[in-house]
Amino acid sequence: MQVIVRDNNVDQALRALKKKLQREGVYREMKLRKHYEKPSEKRAREHAAAISRARKADRKRAERDR
Questions:
Q1: Per-residue CA distances from 20 to 9, 32, 42 (Å)
Q2: Number of domains within the chain
Q3: Interatomic CA distance for residues 57 and 45, integer angstroms
Q4: 2/30 same-domain check
Q5: Of 2, 9, 53, 61, which is the most exposed, with the fewest CB atoms less than 10 Å away?
Q6: pLDDT digit string, tens, across residues 11-34
């Protein structure tokens, strides 16, 4: 990953880097890897996330069809 520092403005470059890391999901992955997660817990978490995504898609579809 690369961020260009323009006019010696390190604060702006740091903000851009943080935004890129957030978009790539690096923070989320670091949080998940902080502690060991059992395979059964991982499956349960991913299953719950899939259900949540499906419900959100259904809500959006229902709102669009109104």
A1: 17, 18, 26
A2: 2
A3: 18
A4: yes
A5: 2
A6: 999 999 999 999 999 999 999 999
